[in-house]
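Section 5: illustrative case.
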């Protein structure tokens, strides 16, 4: 049986999650997903937008939307410093769907104006799609 690790997810605005007895954490690293169990070698890495998953002490899988930031893994603790984060239960699916539609409209415009920022629109689309995915899991 795996040991227990502490998981904390914070944004500039608030503490999103504080779980003292996680079994495992799988996070969206910039270079690919990574998993952490108790006793992991310490490291620091940047994060990409995606879904963070963790197992609770009773074996339930929980999911959190993460928008960029950094992760620090220690032998008994994982700290996520995210630009933004939402637990699955707190995601407003309708708002995420509307954001996806707006981003798709900007990217698919026949005659984009000079103010259209395609990189921002692509980033907004990735963010909306990740939030929708987490909400529907």
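Designed sequence:
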């Amino acid at each position: 049986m795996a040991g227990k690790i502490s998981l904390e997810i914070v944004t500039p605005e608030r503490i999103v999650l504080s779980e003292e007895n996680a079994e495992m954490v799988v996070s969206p690293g910039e270079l690919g997903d990574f998993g952490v169990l108790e006793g992991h070698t310490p490291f620091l890495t940047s994060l990409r937008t995606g879904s963070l998953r963790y197992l609770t002490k009773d074996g339930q899988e929980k999911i959190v939307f993460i928008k960029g930031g950094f992760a620090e893994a220690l032998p008994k603790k994982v700290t996520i410093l995210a630009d933004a984060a939402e637990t699955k239960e707190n995601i407003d699916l309708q708002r995420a769907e509307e954001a996806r539609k707006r981003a798709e409209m900007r990217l698919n415009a026949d005659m984009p104006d000079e103010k259209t920022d395609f990189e921002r629109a692509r980033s907004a689309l990735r963010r909306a799609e990740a939030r929708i995915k987490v909400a529907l899991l």
